[in-house]
Amino acid sequence: MMQISVFGICLFLFSVFISSCSQIILKKSAQIHYDVWWREYLNVRVISAYGIFFLSSFLTMYAYKYVPLSMGPMLEACGYIFVSVLGVLI
Questions:
Q1: What are the pLDDT tens digits along the chain (90 aa)?
Q2: Residue 89's CB: how many other CB atoms inside 10 A?
Q3: Which of 3, 27, 28, 38 has the highest CB neighbour number within 10 Å of its CB?
Q4: CA-angle at 83, arms to 59 and 71, nearest 5°
Q5: Separation CA 29–CA 40 (nearest Å)
Q6: Alpha carbon of 44 to those of 28, 36, 40: distances in Å?
């Protein structure tokens, strides 16, 4: 049986947290109106948010080295909590 490490759990939760932050950045970017349509998709907020999503996916894959696959959905569900709290705070 695989040994569960605190490092893996913390890394997984950090990955979920930065993914939640990225969702908030995308939501804030969607509230801004631009003069041309393509600037809605090609601006600093959107590109950085998708970059954070990309980083989050790699961190999650790396965290699965230390966390069993059956524990992943439980940790991923913390994203709902993170997005709710960040949505209220921001």
A1: 457 789 999 999 999 999 999 999 999 998 888 888 888 888 999 999 999 999 999 999 999 999 999 999 999 999 999 999 988 998
A2: 7
A3: 27
A4: 45
A5: 8
A6: 12, 15, 10
